[in-house]
Amino acid sequence: MSRQLAEWLQASNYSVVMTGAGMSTDSGLPDFRSSSGLWSNYDPKQLATVEALEHQNDAFTKFYQWRLQSLLDASPNKGHKILAQWEQQGLLKQVITQNVDGFHQAAGQQHVSDLHGSLREINCHICGRQASQEDFLNGSSHCPNCGGKLRPGIVLFGEMLPEQAIQQAQEATAACDLFIVLGSSLQVAPASLFPMEAKESGARLVIVNQEETELDSWADLTFPGASIQNVLTETNRYL
Ligand code: APR
């Protein structure tokens, strides 16, 4: 199966990879919906919302301080590095990611659409002014400029996604002839809509995910139960 993926990559004029939290579990960061995922221990509605930011600010801030520190203590894994190498070799045009860890860019990927923003950026919820990670981590949770609450630059449930990232992702999805999903349960729109849009515009669809997704039956190739790093390493051998 990895040989087939390598052949499709070599034959492709415009390949796109879309990643989810499963891309960073090998870096030691939890995903959200697998049995050991974040949402099995925390209720996203109690934490990952503007409501939580405004009315449960202590719990909100502690949760994102912990996630930011975990991310700063971790690093991109071999899978991130292989994708950056494929971009350099002209095999991969665009990465669309739902992840907020910045590991694709840290691994050298140039063309990345961060659909859900970045946990590395801290800003004021009211005036938008940037604040430092240190300020956020050491608990100064108010903006020096306007007194508003500090928050990570990620998309909270119910918030709009960054326009430019969405547009980039839509253009890449429409233009691609190969769309590869890595480590996503495909349960959160609009990201979960892109694989079918690619398929409907004639692209081949490949899904690499440890657990089954609702789109597996539409995919041209799936790697059930496989680990992303193993699939990317195996595929790399044929390139
Ligand atoms: N190899 C392959 N698959 C993996 C690996 C791995 N090493 N590690 C985890 N997975 C799979 C899990 O089985 C799971 O199905 O990755 C998938 C991750 O799915 P989710 O946890 O739902 O994460 P994701 O799809 O990125 O969630 C989308 O939901 O909560 C929001 O904003 C959050 O961006 C996130 C969005």
From TrEMBL:
<keyword id="KW-0520">NAD</keyword>
<feature type="binding site">
    <location>
        <position position="124"/>
    </location>
    <ligand>
        <name>Zn(2+)</name>
    </ligand>
</feature>
<dbReference type="GO" id="GO:0017136">
    <property type="term" value="F:histone deacetylase activity, NAD-dependent"/>
</dbReference>
<dbReference type="InterPro" id="IPR050134">
    <property type="entry name" value="NAD-dep_sirtuin_deacylases"/>
</dbReference>
<dbReference type="InterPro" id="IPR003000">
    <property type="entry name" value="Sirtuin"/>
</dbReference>
<feature type="domain" description="Deacetylase sirtuin-type">
    <location>
        <begin position="1"/>
        <end position="239"/>
    </location>
</feature>
<dbReference type="Pfam" id="PF02146">
    <property type="entry name" value="SIR2"/>
</dbReference>
<dbReference type="GO" id="GO:0046872">
    <property type="term" value="F:metal ion binding"/>
</dbReference>
<feature type="active site" description="Proton acceptor">
    <location>
        <position position="116"/>
    </location>
</feature>
<feature type="binding site">
    <location>
        <position position="146"/>
    </location>
    <ligand>
        <name>Zn(2+)</name>
    </ligand>
</feature>
<dbReference type="GO" id="GO:0070403">
    <property type="term" value="F:NAD+ binding"/>
</dbReference>
<keyword id="KW-0862">Zinc</keyword>
<dbReference type="InterPro" id="IPR029035">
    <property type="entry name" value="DHS-like_NAD/FAD-binding_dom"/>
</dbReference>
<feature type="binding site">
    <location>
        <position position="143"/>
    </location>
    <ligand>
        <name>Zn(2+)</name>
    </ligand>
</feature>
<dbReference type="InterPro" id="IPR026591">
    <property type="entry name" value="Sirtuin_cat_small_dom_sf"/>
</dbReference>
<feature type="binding site">
    <location>
        <position position="127"/>
    </location>
    <ligand>
        <name>Zn(2+)</name>
    </ligand>
</feature>
<protein>
    <recommendedName>
        <fullName>protein acetyllysine N-acetyltransferase</fullName>
        <ecNumber>2.3.1.286</ecNumber>
    </recommendedName>
</protein>
<keyword id="KW-0479">Metal-binding</keyword>
<keyword id="KW-0808">Transferase</keyword>
<dbReference type="InterPro" id="IPR026590">
    <property type="entry name" value="Ssirtuin_cat_dom"/>
</dbReference>
